[in-house]
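May I ask for an example protein's residues together with how it folds?

___
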Amino acid sequence: MIAIRLERLRADHADALLEFERTNRAYFARSVPDRGDGYFTYFADRHRALLAEQDAGTCHFHLVLDEAGLLLGRVNLVDVEDGAAELGYRIGERAAGRGVATAAVLDVCRLAAGEYGLSALTAVTTLDNPASMAVLRRTGFTTVGSITIDDRPGVRYRRGLIG
């Protein structure tokens, strides 16, 4: 298990985040839809848009860092509305399978309940992503239904939060 910490997304994270996404692009594409070339071409614009959404309170974006400050992944809360948000996360290849996703999801659940005042989180994943399904089960999410994600069968999850 790697010790981690979360940092709220900031403007000065842009270069490290872009490098993380480039380095892990092929790895991520094995389990989630690829972001496409435009994501990388217009990354600076996208980063500014994310910060604006965060400033507006509709999303909360976090980097997952190790003790030395190296970027291991991301964990985000999006579409914040009526006390709920959707959880999303991605952990880079070099940290996969080492408890980082589980620790990051638990940390963001604490932030969601405490600092952000949320009462519930939802998440979705495809059936062909058993690692993500395991993380969600380990962190207290329960299955609430089926979903199709980019023509792939998936599962919708929910977790209530205690402040």
Summary: The first helix runs from residue 14 to 23. The chain has a mean pLDDT of 94.
